[in-house]
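Protocol step 6 of 9: fold each sequence in the batch and record its structure tokens directly after the sequence line. For illustration, a two-sequence batch is reproduced in full.

Sequence one:
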Amino acid sequence: MNPVVLFYLAASTGVFMVANSLLKIYAAKGGPLMLIASLACFCLGNYLMVRVMRENGLGLALALSLVFQLVAITVIAFVIFGERPTGLQVAGVVLGIVSISMIAWPQGGAS
């Protein structure tokens, strides 16, 4: 995966984290502007993900994105919103990190 694709992946993950955080605020406090801002961020995040999909295919792009988002949103929920994951949930995040390492691991040899 080249650095430009990694940038798009990181950017989309960041945008999705903002979108999910805005959606959490909307769920707790309401307000149509929070919902509109969240939806706009989701659209931008999906646009960035299309760039990743073009370079790496749908399967790898979404697998990488979903696990990165899983880890990032768990950290945001813990740090910003004060949520506390259970031991089983932490184990799931760790397994997600292991799985993405296995998916993204260079295959070696000719492709």
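Sequence two, same batch, same settings:
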Amino acid sequence: MEGKTTVKYLQSYIKQKDYHPDLLKDYFLKLAEEVGELSRAMRKGLKAPNPNEIKETIDEELWDVIYYTLAIANLFDIDLEQVIKAKEEMNQTRYPSSVVFEENR
């Protein structure tokens, strides 16, 4: 799957599956909850032993954080692929690096 799942696709997928503008507060609370669960998994070093056993691991919690982040972006009609590009341009100015952000990768 490496290199085949884009942020644009994930946003579209989540919007089709889970788009409820009236639940903005709930999405944010769920995001905060998932960050807490990620913190716990990291503190305990709970890494998945294989791709099929991710329950309550850093792996699972990272996806949950990304999921709710993208769901919130959808509620505000924010194209995160564009935001990523713009923010990386800002970061390159503020924190110059020899590593250059490449679009369409």
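Proceed to step 7 once all outputs are recorded. Observation for sequence two: The chain is about 60% helix and 0% strand.
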